[in-house]
Write a structure and sequence with these properties.
The structure is a single chain. The chain is built from ten helices and four strands. It has 269 residues and is an alpha+beta fold. The protein folds into two domains: 103 residues, Gyrase A, domain 2 (2-Layer Sandwich); 141 residues, Isoleucyl-tRNA Synthetase, Domain 1. It has a four-stranded antiparallel beta sheet. Helix 7 runs parallel beside helix 10 and helix 8 packs antiparallel against helix 10.
């Protein structure tokens, strides 16, 4: 979601100081607190070594070059279908050590989730090879399991056969996804999407590892976050949100299996 904007800010910084370096973007997720969707950008620490100036000075300069208005406009465009007015979408700060923290608010996460529901990724090539013994079974199993869950939900009338819109926010503009396993899955969906659509030019992704991590996140989510039974009866919005996360998982797995790992994405086993 943010990586293209961060790359622009980095390029502006390098140009302003006439630096010929080609540093890696070096963005990761903050793992300190559950419930926060925060990128950690360590670029200032990299540049500090080369420029021989404190990382905090570099971080402050780069933050000033991040076009937060462009990021907000991008997010609001994706939020249009939610018909919401969120004043704060992203918070950016630097630590004394020079790390840059970029925290996405619930509205920003909801925008990305809804946009991803409405705009499914394209699969470049569909593979028919049904067995590849070197790949973990969990990859094809999870794709088939997600597909069967969605089909069952459609048959029971919880979601339409073709899902194009889900509201991920409650009336207070907070994410309905509050469980730690839900939020861990959202993070993994973001990580997977970043690797697929905003890859690091200096680092080749390990697609099998990325796919396994996504599968494991969904398996944990499905074990702890109920869709049927009491949730379906008493909180249909939450059930639909969880089905939305399942749909996004299935779609990204289909891309990973077909396009990156060259293996059939089964709908049943």
């Amino acid at each position: 979601m943010l990586l293209p904007h961060l790359q622009v800010a980095l390029n502006l910084y390098l140009l302003s100081y006439k630096l010929t370096l080609q540093p890696q973007l070096n963005v990761s997720w903050c793992q300190k607190k559950d419930g926060e969707f925060t990128y950690v950008w360590a670029i200032a620490l990299q540049l500090s070594t080369a420029q021989k100036i404190p990382a905090i000075q570099i971080a402050t300069k780069i933050i000033g070059m991040i076009n937060t208005q462009a990021i907000a406009d991008d997010i609001r465009q994706k939020l249009a279908t939610e018909n919401l007015a969120c004043s704060t979408l992203i918070a950016i700060r630097a630590t004394p050590s020079g790390l840059i923290y970029l925290e996405l608010t619930d509205c920003a996460i909801a925008a990305w989730l809804q946009y991803s529901i409405a705009n499914p990724p394209k699969i470049e090539k569909y593979c028919l090879q049904k067995n590849k013994t070197l790949l973990p079974f969990i990859l094809q199993y999870t794709h088939a399991r997600c597909y069967s869950v969605l089909q069952l939900a459609a048959r029971e009338g919880i979601i339409p056969p073709v899902l194009t819109s889900i509201s991920f926010l409650d009336s207070q503009q907070q994410l309905l996804c509050r469980h730690a396993a839900e939020q861990a899955l959202i993070k993994q969906l973001l990580v997977t999407s970043d690797n697929l659509y905003a890859p690091n030019a200096h680092l080749k992704p390990h697609w099998q590892k990325i796919a396994v991590a996504l599968c494991q996140s969904w398996q944990t989510f499905y074990a702890y976050c109920q869709i049927w039974g009491e949730v379906k009866r008493n909180n249909l919005d939450l059930a639909r949100v969880r089905l939305g996360l399942t749909l996004l998982t299935q779609r990204l797995l289909a891309v990973l299996l077909n396009d990156k790992l060259g293996i059939y994405a089964p709908t049943e086993l």
